[in-house]
## 1
Amino acid sequence: MNAPLSFPVQVPDAATVARMAPELDDDERESLRARAKRLLKERDAVLVAHYYTHPDLQILADETGGHVADSLDMARFSHEHSASTVVVCGVRFMGETAKILNPEKRVLVPEMQATCSLDLGCPAAAFSDLCDEYPDRTVVVYANTSAAVKARADWMVTSTIALDIIGHLKDRGEKILWAPDRFLGDYIQRKTGADMLMWQGSCIVHEAFKADALERLLAREPGAAVLVHPESPPAVIALAHVVGSTSALIKAVQELPNDTFIIATDRGIFHKMHEMAPHKKLLEAPTAGEGATCESCAHCP
Ligand code: SF4
């Protein structure tokens, strides 16, 4: 396997992070919710929200006939829904993905500053130059990329299908150029043994999880199952009972017999997990800082 390449990765500045919305009181929340419901109806619009968004948005999506899901399922739902306008509560690339699948519909992204460190860290021009340098490699990109990067790729995968697709390409004797997440790429490489040249992007939420602190927490909670998103560092993935996409982790909470779960992904997912398995105890996996929530993007999913 080739050594990983090194690229400068752009990260959001403090001003972007500072744009986090303040919490609402009950009256403000109720008034905004009523207004949003009225406008969605009047404008023939449907709201789709990522599992990582604020619970208020997830509740609003559910109450108005919209959908709460991972990024691919958000785009699929909006494609199948009859509304002429789709409101995507997610980061920018999720809005772009919805537009790719719904070119005839109006797609609105309420917060254009909601970006993703994986998307920001993989500029289309630099990525295209790299593809030109390695014409013998099949270009596979993760869903968390801009539409321009996706347009340069041979394949686009989600975390749910990444292992199967890359395993299939390896069986066909193809060498891979992978972008942008180096941790997810590393996980896929170890699982499939494929020859993968890696772009060096990372998710600022998942890379913050700490394996040593997770081990200590697991020692205090020996019956817990550890659920980890594959964008996390290898040492954290090594402690996981389940590694999977957001949808797979929600399913694991519902289906595994454990009473307690330690979860290494954005804390926004807890809303849906509590809803699906209200009697289970959910703990956040320890991080290096304040916790795991996607501040790359002001109102980040
Ligand atoms: S959680 Fe990570 S991968 Fe997901 S949108 Fe935020 S920065 Fe991107």
## 2
Amino acid sequence: MGRKNSFVAVKPSYNGQALRSQTTVPAQPLGKITHYTYRIEFQQRGSPHAHCVILVENAPKVSDPNEDNTEFIDTYITCNIRSEKDEPDLHKLVTTVQRHHHTATCKKKSTNCRFNYAKLPSPHTLIATPLESDDLAFKAATIDTVSSIFTNIYDTLEDNKISSLDELLQKTEISLEQYVYAL
Ligand SMILES: [Zn+2]
């Protein structure tokens, strides 16, 4: 869902018309699109949604550490839920079609949700990258550290009613820096 009510085809028509229109509208709500590809899929024989790759002119390169990619991403994408009181239509649209609802597909591999929803909140946009080291011992130690952070967090969430990220970090005694690293 884009900012200022611009949108990224949250529920495109079956032939992807809504997505294609983003490439031609003069306002260019996603920037100047140079190439795109998409695939429409259907969940539970309904709810069409698009998996797409969109190339935007002058977009920063993810691989360039000097580029501020998160600022570019934040210009077009947000994942907050708008106020039901102030923006009832957008609130309804997002909570209906942009929020994960468990289905039988989630439990295909004998887990509560094989897509790991609900996801943990992030204080800001993150771009996940592989660990830079090839050292297997370092990788194993990192996985152990991150696993223990997540175990602490999920146990705390299960046993307590937590209403904010600050409260979660306080309760778990995990620093914001450790938490963001684990994400
Ligand atoms: Zn699920």
